[in-house]
Design a protein that fits this description.
Elements lengths: L2 E6 L5 H11 L5 E8 L5 H8 L4 E3 L8 H14 L4 E4 L8 H6 L4 E5 L11 H8 L3 E8 L9 E8 L6 H24 L3 E4 L2 E4 L7
Parallel strand pairs: 1-2, 1-4, 2-3, 4-5
Antiparallel strand pairs: 5-6, 6-7, 8-9
Helix pairs in contact: 1-6
The chain binds glycinamide ribonucleotide.
């Protein structure tokens, strides 16, 4: 069975691009049902349209609060038949109403080794703290900020002469590799969640 994947993105959309490319290469057992952005100017929307994908804008300013925004998001996603969601640079904390509509079916990518440096400007936080290693994390979304069970992580070195930009670029390269892989595992039903821990079952071999 293929999962119906929706991608939520606020900006540039390079992670979306990596997901689309993996999907086009036949590496993801999903149908991408559409892309939603809270930002009408998001480059992610152009990338979606360029690949013939449905692209919708849902500006938060149209809704009185986070709950109402979340409810509208759930309605839109359900109307597309979505059963799995990937947050790809979606710079907004999703309301619990969204999390509960897709329990353990929402992934997020974060540019740090969680639980270090959650929230905004993770690469800047890592540099300011002085860590020698950083990286990225794909996790299932729960009701906290970047707190859900961890699916995959990749580490990169932090060099003394790194700037926010050079570190972000090194991490981004790993993000593009890691995110499609995590989506593939969730879509294939290979993730088992027990408390905070996520177990990855081996690939079934059909003879
Ligand atoms: C990525 O680095 C992603 O990890 C980060 O935003 C960037 C989006 O880039 N997400 C967060 O910081 C979420 N807290 P993209 O639009 O090119 O995929």
């Amino acid at each position: 069975m293929t999962a119906n994947l929706a991608v939520l993105a606020s900006g540039r959309g390079t992670n979306l691009q990596a997901i689309i490319e993996a999907w086009q290469a036949g590496r993801l057992p999903v149908d991408i049902v559409g892309v939603v952005s809270d930002n009408p100017d998001a480059q992610a929307l152009e990338r979606a349209r360029a690949h013939g994908l449905r692209a919708a804008v849902l500006p938060a300013a149209l809704y009185p609060d986070r709950r109402a925004y979340g409810a509208a998001l759930v309605e839109l996603l359900k109307s597309w038949g979505t059963d799995m969601v990937a947050l790809a640079g979606f710079m907004r904390l999703v309301d619990p109403v969204v999390v509960r509509a897709f329990p353990n079916r929402i992934l997020n990518i974060h540019p740090a080794l969680l639980p270090a440096f959650p929230g905004l400007h993770a690469q800047r936080q890592a540099l300011q703290y002085g860590v020698r290693v950083s990286g990225c994390t794909v996790h299932l979304v729960d009701e906290g900020m970047d707190t859900g069970p961890i699916v995959l992580q990749a580490a990169v070195p932090v060099f003394p002469d790194d700037t926010e930009e050079t570190l972000a670029a090194r991490i981004l390269k790993e993000e593009h590799r890691l995110y499609p892989e995590a989506i593939r595992l969730l879509a294939a039903g290979r993730l088992k969640v027990e408390g905070r821990r996520v177990y990855i079952s081996p690939e079934e071999v059909t003879l």
